[in-house]
Specification:
Elements (H helix, E strand, L loop, with lengths): L10 H12 L2 H4 L11 H20 L9 E6 L5 H12 L4 E7 L2 H8 L2 H4 L5 E5 L15 E5 L8 E6 L2 E10 L7 H4 L1 E7 L5 H10 L2 E5 L1 H13 L4 E7 L1 E2 L2 H7 L4 E4 L1 E4 L1 E2 H8 L4 E3 L8 E7 L5 H9 L6 H11 L6 H10 L4 H13 L4 H16 L10 H11 L3 H15 L3 H13 L3 H14 L4 H10 L3
Helix pairs in contact: 3-4, 3-12, 14-16, 15-17, 17-18, 18-19, 19-20, 20-21
The structure holds S-adenosylmethionine (SAM).
Length: 471
């Protein structure tokens, strides 16, 4: 097999096929990183940016106060960011329309089946859209485009500068037999090939100097298409892993590809910035290789509100840093009051609740704290977006409520866990304990019998049934 430019290798096609096959499992099994970028806090920050851009459009006389702001999400994946964003925009009473899209039909179907989507016809719509296919276009001129962990998934090209001359860093891909997804099995061999170097790459290469660098050719094509759809006026909110500046590109070296079912690359945001040219390019001050947030604007001369809002939200703060602080905090026992403050600072995000569920189960809250905790759990549940998989949010909530002695409430959450994650012996057993303590002997015993059918010989269930004389 001959070496081809990286963007023309079969890796990207295999990667798209992986997303089509995996559908929501790519998220439930955690094969793609997504929890922070799909969090309530990021949705809030995006909601603020969308509102700000809308204010700048209205100030410029380009939108009326009643007209909805039109948002297009590309490569939306499981759709949790959209879920949080819709709730934020509605609470803030911002008129909007969201066209949510993904190239994988399986993702689009899963998104369409969500209650929050079919409850909002004409406001939240789903569409299969390949950001790079000439056949596809959204039925709107978007004011705002969201692309989270999309640019890393679109094709990239690799280049090498040797003695001042630019070569394509081409790749030969062999696929040994096996059951793992193609992108994980593929064996790559790189070589420098002389080609006609595109003008942009020729202009950009001297910035990097000697060595290897990548150009996110798919992302650049996508941005060009977005500009066309939006008639040259829109705000693109991008979040991705990548190289935030030229220093990171220079230290990066060989093509940096990650394989996680599909394939993804570190996004050279320095190249995107160079390509974006004179147009406003806002970057979070704390952009890190693992995650950076970027806002790319075009078509508005004055973006006072947008800039100020960026500086007050994602431009200034590093959510990755905050997440590390949270993990450090949870290493040691914390008073319930502190945990509740942190949960509130994270806008009652269920993921954050799950991280603190263990310390909360171990804590001994006062009655007042207990009441606040129950309230916090209900608020966090409102933001819950089920993707299945190992994280059982309802069960985590149920066990904290159970410890608090909130039996009726805990039982409701155990039921939710059973509904979403299937009949598990531990959940049935805990629910049986709640039912029995609430005086519901019949349903409690039935659940214990179910525990024994799911887990024959279950000690607790056998003992309690014997005591009840209901074996
Ligand atoms: C890494 S996932 C990110 C998903 C989501 N934005 C998130 O943050 O969880 C990449 C998504 O992009 C989609 N995708 C891949 N190639 C695409 C393309 N050419 N156009 C639109 N979506 C694409 C995949 O189906 C997948 O859902």
């Amino acid at each position: 097999m001959t070496a081809t430019p990286l963007s023309e290798s079969p890796l990207w096609r295999w990667s798209s096929q992986f997303y089509e096959r995996a559908a929501t499992e790519a998220w439930s099994k955690g094969t793609v990183p997504w929890r922070l970028t799909n969090s309530v806090r990021v949705a809030e920050a995006y909601g603020r940016m969308i509102t700000a851009w809308r204010a700048d459009l209205i100030a410029a006389g380009l939108k009326t106060v009643d007209a909805p702001i039109e948002v297009l999400e590309l490569g939306g994946g499981a759709g949790r960011l959209a879920f949080h964003l819709v709730r934020w925009l509605e609470a803030a009473k911002v008129p909007f329309q969201l066209m949510w899209t993904d190239a994988a039909q399986s993702n689009v179907e899963a998104f369409r089946a969500r209650a929050f989507v079919h409850e909002r016809p004409g406001v939240v719509e789903a569409l299969k859209l390949d950001a790079l296919s000439e056949r596809d276009a959204p039925p709107m001129a978007p004011d705002v485009v969201i692309a989270t962990y999309l640019f890393d998934t679109l094709p990239h090209d690799a280049w090498a500068v040797r003695g001042g001359k630019v070569f394509s860093r081409a790749v030969r891909v062999e696929l040994p037999p096996g059951d793992a997804p193609e992108c994980e099995r593929a064996v790559l061999e790189w070589e420098d090939v002389e080609v006609d170097v595109p003008a942009f790459v020729r202009g950009y290469a001297p910035r990097v100097g000697e060595g290897v660098f990548m150009v996110p050719s798919g992302a650049l094509r996508c941005l060009a298409r977005v500009g066309g759809w939006a008639h040259g006026r829109c705000l693109v909110l991008a979040a991705d892993k990548g190289e935030p500046d030229v220093a990171a590109v220079q230290t990066g070296g060989n093509p940096k590809l990650q394989r996680h079912g599909g394939i993804s690359a570190m996004v050279n945001f320095d190249a995107i910035r160079a390509w974006w040219g004179w147009r406003p390019f806002l970057r979070s001050a704390q952009a890190e290789p693992d995650l950076g947030f970027y806002a790319l604007a075009q078509g508005l001369e004055t973006l006072a509100v947008t800039r100020a809002t960026w500086s007050a939200t994602l431009g200034a703060e590093s959510l990755l840093h905050r997440l590390r602080e949270l993990d450090a905090l949870l290493q040691y026992p914390q008073p319930v009051k502190r945990l509740l403050e942190v949960l509130e600072a994270w806008r009652f995000d269920p993921d954050v609740f799950v991280r603190m569920a263990e310390p909360l189960r171990a804590a001994q809250p006062t009655p007042d704290e207990g009441a606040l905790l129950v309230e916090a759990i209900d608020r966090a549940w409102e933001s819950h977006f089920e993707v299945g998989g190992a994280v059982d949010v309802a069960f985590e909530m149920a066990t904290v409520l159970h410890r608090l002695g909130q039996l009726t409430h805990a039982a409701r959450f155990y039921e939710r866990s059973l509904e979403a994650h299937g009949r598990h012996a531990t959940v049935c057993f805990n629910l049986a304990l709640c039912r029995l303590d609430l005086g519901d002997r019949e349903r409690g015993a039935a659940l214990l019998r179910e525990v024994l059918s799911l887990s024959p010989g279950h000690g607790g269930a056998t003992r309690i049934l014997a005591r009840l004389g209901a074996g």
